[in-house]
Amino acid sequence: MTRWVVVGAGTAGCVVTALLSARPDAEVVLIESGTATSTPPLSVFDALAVPGRLVDGPVLRGQGLGGSSAVNGMIAVLAAGESGPDVALPRATATDDELGPIDRALLVAAPGAVRVPLAMRGGRRVTTADSYLY
To answer: If we measure between CA atoms, which residue out of 30, 29, 26 comes closest to residue 10?
Structure first.
C-alpha cells in the first residue's frame, strides 16, 4: 500500500487526489486549510453582475475545496488530444438565458465570436472539487 498526502485542495490538488485515489494500491489524504464551501462571498464576476458596483480592494482568491475554480469564469477549454472518460470536468455552452449583459455585448460586437465551453452541469457552475472529489 502506497500512502500519499496531498497538501492543498485547489484545482491541482483535487485532480491529483482523484487520480491517486483511483489506484487500487493507494491510500490518499487531502489537507486543505480553507473552508469546505466552494463559493466565497464575492468574486469579480459577482461584482460585474451588479450594475454600477465597484470592487473595493483585492479580488478574493478561491480558498478551500476547488480553489480558484470556485471564482473563475468557468471556461473549460481542453488541451489538444485531451478527452474521454478520464476528463471529469463537464462542459456545456451557456444558453441565451444564461448570458449576462457583457456576454451579449461582446457577441454583438464581434459577429465571428463563438461561445466557449464552460465548466457547468445543469446550468450551474462546477468546480474541480465538484468534478473530481464529490
So the answer is: 30
